[in-house]
Design goal:
Two copies of one chain form a homodimer. The first copy, chain A, is of the alpha+beta class. Chain A has two domains: about 5-120, Jelly Rolls (Sandwich); about 145-225, Arc Repressor Mutant, subunit A (Orthogonal Bundle), CATH 1.10.10. Helices cover about 40% and strands about 20% of the residues of chain A. The first copy, chain A, is built from eight helices and ten strands. In chain A, strands 2-6-4-5 form a four-stranded antiparallel sheet. In chain A, strand 4 and strand 5 form a beta hairpin. The longest helix of chain A has 27 residues, at about 120-145. Chain A is globular. Chain A starts with a helix and ends in a 25-residue tail after the last helix. In chain A, about 40% of the residues are buried. The interface between A and B is large, with 44 and 44 residues. Chain A binds a DNA duplex (30 and 30 nucleotides) through helix 7.
Chain lengths: ~250, ~250
Amino acid sequence: MSQFLIRKLEHYARLSAGEKESLETLTQLRTRRVRPRDDIIHEGDAPTLINVVLEGWACRYKTLEDGRRQIIAYLLPGDVCDLSAPILREMDHSIAAITSVTLAEITVEAVGHLFAASPRLMQALCWDALATASIQREWTVNVGQRTAFERLGHLLCELFVRQRLLGLTRGGVCDLPLTQAEIADTIGLSVVHVNRTLQDLRSAGLISLGGRELTIHRLEALQRAVLFNANYLHLGHEGRHLDAPVPASS
Amino acid sequence: MSQFLIRKLEHYARLSAGEKESLETLTQLRTRRVRPRDDIIHEGDAPTLINVVLEGWACRYKTLEDGRRQIIAYLLPGDVCDLSAPILREMDHSIAAITSVTLAEITVEAVGHLFAASPRLMQALCWDALATASIQREWTVNVGQRTAFERLGHLLCELFVRQRLLGLTRGGVCDLPLTQAEIADTIGLSVVHVNRTLQDLRSAGLISLGGRELTIHRLEALQRAVLFNANYLHLGHEGRHLDAPVPASS
DNA sequence: CGAGCGCTTGAGTTCCCTCAATGGTAGTGG
DNA sequence: CCACTACCATTGAGGGAACTCAAGCGCTCG
């Protein structure tokens, strides 16, 4: 079930069979299911366990006192909710399930042992955390500088590419279990305007969207149209230098 | 000269005299000056040294192909530019000096030794990195959800509070060496609109701004007006559990 | 003293928002 | 099986926030 986490980390550095097995075991010990729209962790909590998404979509979000809500990240299978829990005590934002979500719950101690046993695994997870931070920066750029059309297209590109990485796309098609209201809260637009901007993207022949499924007809063209540059996802296997030695058999 | 870094880290956890001395030494070994507007690190670089701001203001920024620029963070004295350099190879954004900046340049190895000798120092710096990530999330909320008035007020609040933390404020007054164009690129507004929104803040009696100096007349009122909640800065000394033992003399 | 830069102001326009109403679909219960 | 509800997507109309363009003013600096 932690195939997605492993698959993602392998984009950073090659892991040894033992490391993969450790991850596999660790994420199977204890799991939890969360229903759509329920909170996984709430702002102000001091989580004692580290949560990893095994299945389903979740989001980080913050709300202002008057109810305005901003979604600040999407968590896909393989994403870690709160590796920082042992250091920063209090959550400064909430995490909610979007679809039904299956989580692995891992103790801080178990992660400590894992890291002690395999520094490479620690580095791979640090890498992942840094890539996450990079995504956050790109989102600031997205809402700060891009037009509605570009913002929306950029978000769709990102979600498609991230899923492709996990092997969750089927040709140019991928899941998109978001309502237009959630998209609106993500890119800082009103629902009405998201709806109209989606129509613009559709009539430009770039995408189809409906029934929780997104089709990107011409990824290259979409990327150019919305100034999407995947560098910020750090997927170029730049972490080669961390690779585990290749077994003699291969 | 690394007084600011130490001062900041002490908001997270109490450091021992030896730890402070190590930091002091490390940041004095090799320094570098950068002129206003010059790049400190450029996107695509693979930095070999870790830079710490000792003096002056800098900013992280990203530019789109067509020239639009988004400032994604401000670096004040004591801020670390790129602790992640040893892990993520390539910079996905640039860092530029705003004022004259003095940097400490530290080798990756030296930091490695420091962390090995003092796990608490490593944790404190991790804490700092996590607080930085939290600021980034709040900025996404800022540009995504807040009105121009709130965005601008929120930014000013943050810069004031962060400087106060470093002992860089004088009553309700602090430095603000930013042009309106830089502010515009930070909060995703046009220069003209920043100018008009500043006037709104002034005529509301909340601030004075001019000559690179910001005065906040009623911080409480400003915080309320722009929905500023300092939690996201993680300054509540939540890191008590990491404290060094208090010397017997105190 | 001219040049450059940053701040300010006015006028007109565009993008995006709010309000309001409608239709489709899925789930619920009688 | 069909009302009933809730939620989501969609559309129209009108308004307001923020943008662009353009010009003028006051610094500072070579």
